């Protein structure tokens, strides 16, 4: 555990300390010690104002991809997982096998076919090229499927039907309350996945105005190479710190739901 904590926390400590340094101090002092003037506030201001304030545009793009893409993926996974768990139909085992296969296939293996498909549709270099693939979450669907099977008793659904509730009303007013821990868990996974998504936007987008934070910060980092290079590592590091703040806040606020969702069904009574 000590080795794991060291491996996890040392890069974070280095990142936080480095965000307080100027460009010159960053290259001339130790990464795990403070040095030079305390420049955190200046770095934050420069990060948001550099290159015409493009960082703020990248932040807005990332929020768009997360809200629409991750939010849509969570909604689709919840509805589909509930339906697969509670409505028997012919071929359900085949769907389950395909779902497990989809989980096993790495996203990078589908990147080129996805790019060719969206290129033929004329959707590359648009937000839809990032949002639409983000709507599909096989792991989220599988998680909701298994969670629904354990957490939602058939007797509860039958009681609601006897009271005259329709299937849509049962799902929206009864099932969703029971599935809340699982839904929040899937939402956290999809939000983190979409927020940190790098390879898909990299191949789909060529217009900097549509970049998410991951691709945009990498472009800033690339400015340190080549003829006439102007390194801005201090802004890249500060931007990285700003980037992780929303994810840390989300985990701190929703961790109780996340833990509850992960342990659902582990104890039978």
TrEMBL record:
Task: Please state where this protein is localized.
Answer: Cell membrane
Q: Per UniProt, what is one Pfam family of this protein?
A: BPD_transp_1
Its membrane topology:
Multi-pass membrane protein
The protein's superkingdom reads Bacteria
Query: Where exactly are the transmembrane stretches of this chain?
Result: 63-82, 94-116, 128-149, 170-195, 232-254
Identify the InterPro entries for this entry. MetI-like, MetI-like_sf
Q: Please classify the protein's predominant subcellular localization into one broad category.
A: membrane
Write out the entry's keywords from A to Z.
Cell membrane, Membrane, Transmembrane, Transmembrane helix, Transport
Q: Where is the ABC transmembrane type-1 domain?
A: 59-254
Q: Report what the protein is called.
A: Carbohydrate ABC transporter permease
């Amino acid at each position: 555990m000590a080795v794991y904590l060291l491996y996890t926390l040392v890069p974070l400590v280095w990142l936080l300390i480095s965000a307080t340094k100027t460009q010159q101090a960053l290259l001339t002092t130790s990464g795990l010690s403070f040095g030079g003037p305390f420049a955190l506030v200046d770095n934050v201001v420069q990060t948001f104002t550099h290159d015409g304030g493009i960082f703020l545009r990248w932040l807005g793009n990332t929020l768009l991809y997360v809200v629409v893409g991750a939010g849509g993926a969570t909604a689709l996974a919840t509805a589909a997982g509930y339906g697969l768990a509670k409505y028997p139909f012919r071929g359900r085992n085949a769907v389950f096998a395909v779902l497990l296969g989809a989980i096993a296939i790495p996203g990078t293996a589908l990147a080129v076919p996805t790019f060719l498909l969206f290129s033929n549709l004329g959707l590359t270099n648009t937000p839809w090229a990032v949002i639409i693939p983000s709507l599909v979450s096989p792991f989220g669907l599988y998680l909701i499927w298994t969670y629904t099977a354990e957490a939602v008793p058939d007797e509860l659904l039958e009681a609601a039907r006897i009271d005259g509730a329709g299937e849509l009303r049962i799902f929206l007013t009864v099932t969703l309350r029971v599935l809340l821990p699982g839904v929040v868990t899937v939402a956290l996974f999809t939000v983190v996945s979409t927020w940190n998504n790098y390879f898909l936007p990299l191949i789909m987008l060529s217009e900097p105005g549509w970049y998410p934070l991951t691709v945009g910060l990498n472009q800033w980092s690339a400015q340190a190479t080549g003829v006439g290079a102007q390194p801005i590592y201090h802004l890249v590091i500060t931007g990285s710190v700003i980037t992780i703040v929303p994810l840390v806040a989300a985990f701190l606020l929703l961790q109780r739901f996340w833990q509850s969702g992960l342990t659902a069904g582990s104890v039978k009574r």
